[in-house]
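The protein record passed on for reference:
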Amino acid sequence: MKNILITGGAGYIGSHLAKFFKNKGYNIIIIDNFERSSKKVINVLKVDKYFVMDLRRDDLTEILKGIDIVFHCAAYIDVSESIRNPDIYFENNVLGTHKLLSQMKKAGVYNLIFSSSAAVYGDQGDRMLTEEDIKKPIQPYGFSKSVMEDWIEWFCKIFGFNAMVFRYFNACGCDEDGLIGEAHQPETHLIPRALHSLFNKEEEFYVYGNDYDTKDGSCIRDYIHILDIVDAYSRGIKYLQENRGFFVFNLGNNSGYSVFEVLTEIEKVTELKLKYKIVQRRIGDPAILVASNSKAREALCWKPARNLFDMISSQYKYLKRDL
């Protein structure tokens, strides 16, 4: 599987995958509509080919010919936006995925690794979540990811696709050289938002709720470094070469941090004091989301190698580069 097509390849997850696999000698082709990503990333990556295309509208069949495996990373990911405007999440995430799968089938490409999310689980209390738990998404974003997974599974059952789903539990951190990193447009994730607020004193930082049934009242999340995710993909390719079917793996650290714990760690890393304002909860935010990663450890011989300090410090290095 030396020829890889990455949808959303200029985005956060996709760009890190492109950089790693290109450096390993793979042939990388990127598809991105650059609606929520930047072409600056392409200049840094120096990939073999990239195409400005949209999964919802453009035909990828010719580009797919000769591809061995697709990394499907293209999706809208803002939970709050999905509640305000669920239609675009169905159109972009679900219909875009269906069109991709149909064109893969037409081109004879049957190998896929899909970027999914812990949001498919919804709010299931304070226990660690496993891949066998029933999916109960509580917002349109999580629902769209759940449906995308279902479509992929059906293509495996009916057409013989060979697919792996990775459910991320709050991907964060950046590449070690600081050249690419987490830079969503707009930025919605906790660590980069907090760091941006430190750099820009006029940018107010909000904590959404301090009345959850948790140890300090703020939400608890499992965090996973982007480079640990990349490592899982590397092992995932090998696994798909030796096994056929539909496979689902959680990617997390087996532990969670509250929002206030993350903010405290950010202050330690930066040696700066963060000012924040507590506001009402956001709709669709469960109190606790923590993964069991035992299945990935056993099947893929994978385990996360980086901690919260590594996640924050690498993002800090990336953001300081432009100051």
Remarks:
- The chain has a mean pLDDT of 93.
- The longest strand covers residues 111-117.
- The chain is about 40% helix and 20% strand.
